[in-house]
Each structure stands twice: as structure tokens, then as C-alpha cells.
Design goal:
globular
Length: about 150
């Protein structure tokens, strides 16, 4: 049996509106948003008395998705520093291919984003950088140069 596709990446957030705005500015499209609760979700995620609001965003090509979840109950738990460095264990970033790294950075800065390091050229293939957005979410940006 083989994997058919990667469906989505989940990011738990405190300010759903701010994070949606950040990803929409990046170029993702809001596919849907609404409450999720009940015994079925409690059984899936292994947490009791769950009440959350979930938003699903998709890339313009429809192939990639980011799911955002804001927990009303129980309260979300932070297990690492908000601005964890790149060498912290766990998922550190989501990478997106963009048309123009500098223009994308400028747009995301209006939503509080900051460069983690610098924009760097990888040979003659990519311009790459990491941007830290709302709630410390790190997004990688890659501009193909060929």
C-alpha cells in the first residue's frame, strides 16, 4: 500500500483571524471555517471535552492545504518557546514556492512577519528565506531562479 497524497498540515493557534489573514496574504485561499466538537473528534485526537474552531486553507493549485485550529476548550498548551530557533525538535516550518521572495516578504510584513535570518541564494536554483509570522509560525519561501 502506498501513500496517495499529503492531505494537510495542522497548526494550532490562539488568534485564528490573524493567522488566516497571514496565510491569505501569502496567497492561500480560505476553503472553509467552522466549529468542530463532539465525541468523534475527541476520539480521533485523544482529548476530552473538545471545542475548537477550524479553518482550512489551500494553495492556489489546490494541491497543498494548511489546517488551522483554535481550541476554545481545553485551552491550548505551549510546550516550547514562542520564538523557537530552527534547531528545536519538532516541525519547524512549512515551505512555499513563491513568484517573488522580496515582494512576498513585503506583503507579509504588513501582518507582523519578520525575517528569521536572511534571504539567501542557493546556487543558481533558488532564493530562500524563513519568515516568522503571527504566533511564531515559521514559513519558508522559495523563489525558483531558472
Amino acid at each position: 500500500m502506498a501513500i496517495r497524497r499529503m492531505d494537510n498540515v495542522l497548526i494550532v493557534v490562539e488568534d485564528l483571524d490573524a493567522v488566516i489573514a497571514f496565510f491569505v496574504e501569502l496567497g492561500m485561499e480560505l476553503e472553509g471555517r467552522g466549529p468542530v466538537e463532539g465525541r468523534w473528534v475527541e476520539r480521533v485526537i485523544g482529548v476530552e471535552d473538545v471545542r475548537q474552531e477550524v479553518a482550512m486553507l489551500r494553495t492556489p493549485d489546490g494541491q497543498g492545504k494548511v489546517e488551522l485550529a483554535m481550541f476554545h476548550a481545553p485551552t491550548a498548551v505551549r510546550h516550547e518557546p514562542e520564538d523557537a530557533p530552527a534547531n528545536t525538535l519538532g516541525i519547524r516550518r512549512v515551505m512555499f514556492a513563491v513568484d517573488d521572495v522580496e515582494e512576498t516578504i513585503a506583503r507579509l510584513r504588513r501582518h507582523g512577519a519578520e525575517l528569521v535570518g536572511e534571504v539567501q541564494r542557493f546556487e543558481d536554483i533558488f532564493l530562500l528565506c524563513y519568515v516568522r509570522g503571527p504566533e511564531g509560525i515559521i514559513v519558508g519561501l522559495a523563489e525558483e531562479l531558472r
